[in-house]
């Protein structure tokens, strides 16, 4: 059988080959040699940079699925017990530096790695460490835990959704996990039974925190929280907890990063609004004027879906004026020479150039002048109609660079309001 060396092809052909491959096949190729791995990283860097997140969904020590954001969170790899591979051909392979039994991907199943209960967590840790080295720190790593008495011990996780059913082990499991992956961007904790967590300072350092734990006190968490958004949907919060929080917040003693706090009244949170309002200096907007609306983005639900929520109230609290953050340094691209401007623009994706062109008429003219040779190489723009229309160009190998989506398709990333093409749009 004749073989062809990939390295014999020109770079443009190698890029085309890699771009047409599934993510799992690219990962397989990276195992072949250090040289091929480096070639993959340099050749399809733009594709790897489009991967926003890798998600691990664990159902036990020997059960985990792995998915990525660029495949609509469809799983491309799965850790399963050896019994799962009983009726499928088993292949012995060296993956991630370990000899493992595998089942190749089919039309109906992702790639399987067979493991035992005692070595499943180590296998997942090895895979995670390889991804961190291969993809780098530019992408987010998410964990969803479906097992009530087990959490995989993984480092550098950015977003976590946890479910606990066994109360006795919950506090210890949570603390041990947060020791390895502290200060996360988002954590949601669900539990049908109460457990002690309110004094967990690692949990209080989460940037956006969702708590749905019935029968447990949340006052200490409210007091110690240092993040941006806190949602207490179920838990025990008293009037005194809220009054103390408001006193500290209004005096600028604590919670300087807090943008939004929401406490649902219900089981365990039977608050007395009249008592709370009597203890603070509550003011009201002029009803003859439009009441301000606060919009914020938040992640929620098992799928960690981004959505824009709104809040408005005729009442408000006047707080001491806080010192504004110092302005960030900015760089004007027009200050650079034409040669440097051309080099910067040449390394940008087409969709980024189009968005920058909408900044101003002057910038639009300069870009057309500097990028004339690049734009002349674009032979076609293709519009593909459907439920979510795609727009592609011949210069990107007909890979879509823009799509028009429905509102509920926005999963995995926040929506940003922008003025594009003279219209106010929401983009991601």
Describe, in plain words, how this protein is organized in 3D:
Residues 3-51 form the F-box domain. This is F-box domain-containing protein. The chain is α/β, with parallel strands linked by helices and 428 residues long. Among the domains are: 158-283 and 298-303; 333-427, no CATH class. 28% of the residues lie in helices and 28% in strands. The chain has helices at 11-19, 23-30, 34-43, 45-49, 120-135, 167-180, 201-204, 219-224, 239-250, 273-278, 338-346, 350-357, 361-370, 372-375; strands at residues 53-60, 63-68, 75-81, 91-95, 98-103, 111-115, 140-145, 159-164, 186-191, 208-217, 229-236, 260-263, 282-284, 294-300, 305-311, 315-317, 381-384, 390-393, 400-403, 416-420, 423-427. The strands form five sheets. It has a twelve-stranded mixed beta sheet. Strands 17-18-19 form a three-stranded antiparallel beta sheet, with no helix packed on it. Strands 13-16 form a two-stranded antiparallel sheet. A hairpin with a 2-residue loop joins strand 20 (416-420) and strand 21 (423-427). It is flat, with a radius of gyration of 26 Å. The two termini are 47 Å apart. The mean pLDDT is 81.
């Amino acid at each position: 059988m004749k073989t062809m060396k990939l390295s014999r092809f020109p770079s443009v052909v190698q890029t085309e080959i890699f771009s047409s491959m599934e993510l799992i096949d690219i990962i397989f190729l990276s195992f072949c040699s250090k040289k091929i791995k480096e070639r993959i990283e340099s050749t399809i860097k733009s594709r790897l940079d489009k991967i926003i997140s890798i998600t691990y969904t664990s159902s036990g020590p020997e059960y985990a699925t792995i998915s990525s954001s660029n495949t609509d969170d469809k799983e491309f790899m799965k850790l399963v017990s050896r019994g799962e591979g009983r009726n499928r051909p088993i292949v012995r392979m060296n993956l991630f530096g370990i000899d493992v039994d595998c089942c190749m991907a089919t039309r109906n199943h992702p790639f399987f790695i067979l493991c035992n209960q005692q070595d499943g967590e180590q296998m997942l840790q090895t895979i995670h460490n390889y991804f961190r080295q291969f993809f780098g720190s530019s992408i987010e790593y998410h964990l969803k835990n479906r097992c009530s008495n087990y959490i995989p011990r993984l480092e550098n996780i950015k977003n976590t959704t946890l479910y606990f059913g066994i109360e006795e082990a919950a506090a210890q499991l949570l603390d041990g996990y947060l020791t390895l992956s502290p200060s996360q961007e988002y954590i949601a904790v669900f539990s049908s039974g109460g457990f002690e967590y309110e004094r967990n300072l690692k949990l209080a350092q989460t940037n956006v925190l969702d708590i749905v734990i019935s029968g447990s006190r949340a006052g200490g968490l409210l007091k110690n929280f240092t993040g941006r958004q806190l949602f207490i949907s179920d838990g025990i919060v008293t009037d005194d907890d809220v009054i103390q929080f408001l006193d500290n917040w209004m005096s600028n003693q604590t919670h300087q990063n807090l943008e939004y706090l929401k406490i649902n009244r219900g089981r365990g949170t039977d608050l007395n609004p009249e008592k709370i309002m009597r203890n603070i200096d509550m003011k009201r907007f002029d009803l003859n004027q439009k009441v301000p609306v606060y919009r914020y983005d938040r992640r929620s639900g098992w799928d960690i879906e981004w959505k824009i929520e709104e809040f408005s109230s005729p009442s408000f609290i006047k707080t001491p004026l806080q010192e504004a953050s110092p302005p960030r340094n900015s760089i004007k691209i027009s200050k650079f020479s034409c040669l440097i401007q051309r080099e910067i623009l040449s390394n940008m994706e087409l969709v980024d150039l189009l968005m920058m062109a909408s900044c101003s008429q002057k910038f639009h003219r300069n870009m057309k002048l500097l990028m004339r040779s690049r734009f002349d190489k674009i032979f076609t723009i293709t519009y593909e109609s459907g439920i979510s229309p795609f727009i592609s160009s011949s210069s990107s190998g007909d890979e879509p660079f823009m799509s028009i989506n429905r509102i509920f398709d926005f999963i995995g990333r926040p929506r940003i309001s922008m003025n594009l093409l003279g219209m106010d749009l929401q983009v991601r």
